[in-house]
Amino acid sequence: MPIVHIVTDSCANLATPHFLQQHPVTIVPNKISIAGKTYREGVDLSAEEALRLIAHQPYAPLVSSPTEAEYVEVYNRLARTCDAIISIHASREMFPSWANAVRAARQVAGHCQVVVIDSQSICAGQGMLVKVAAKAIERESTVEDMVRAVRGATERIFGVYYVESVNYLLQNKIMSPSHTVLGMLLGIKPFLGIEDGRLQLIEKVRTRLQAIDRLVEFVVEFTDIEDVIIVQHRPYLSEQTRLVQDRLAIDFPGQHFPYTLYNPSLAALVGAEATGIVILESEADEPDDDF
Known about the structure:
Layout: E1 4-9, H1 19-22, E2 25-28, E3 31-34, E4 37-40, H2 47-54, E5 62-64, H3 68-79, E6 84-89, H4 97-107, E7 113-118, H5 124-139, H6 143-154, E8 157-163, H7 167-171, H8 177-186, E9 189-195, E10 198-205, H9 208-220, E11 225-232, H10 239-251, E12 259-261, H11 264-270, E13 274-281
Parallel strand pairs: 1-2, 1-6, 6-7, 11-12
Antiparallel strand pairs: 3-4, 3-5, 8-9, 8-13, 9-10, 11-13
Helix pairs in contact: 3-4, 5-6, 9-10
């Protein structure tokens, strides 16, 4: 069995406690600038502290992905003890982490196989892909099969987000100025999805109850769920999350719907008041050749 290590950036939300202690994963932190101060995400500043600071800032924080040089240093260090590296990154449409990692991988070619993967997601979706990679390392016998499992999972990750404030969406050009002004005048709240690796406006709702209805409807569309998590802006169970869990318990008896605090990188895009659900759909069964 080859020795394989996983690398990711801190856009990935790994909600499972002690995951890093149980699996060969290295997180290279983003840098996030809030109110003139720069922090290493998840190192100098926790998600809870960051969201508290972001909630009081009118301007979206600046997120800087790990540089090419930082990835080169990490890859070279890991290459001393492993045969291959699977490097999983935030969507290239949102951050330059993937592009920086691709350039870094070229510099260590010949010393260690480095496969760089665009998660086409962020936060919990990216974290789910890291977990898929960890399982693949344990189950598969070749690097090629491990990579195939991870790439296949990128097409099965879906997420939607209800956002309370349009301010950061306007600054990040996720919503147009005209849509933003109209939404503010009418009190309409945006509902976002990730399509082609981008956060995009997919519809609007007027109330939190309508948002909860839409979150539940999104989950009900799936018949077989491999992994699911609710992302929220509070470290404790929010009222919105509790209502979503209660509603989903009716449609999915026995299915657990855990929640997690989303990370500062996502907050820099959508603000400090959002609720979402991310799903990894189960892999379709292979067709039976006998039929």
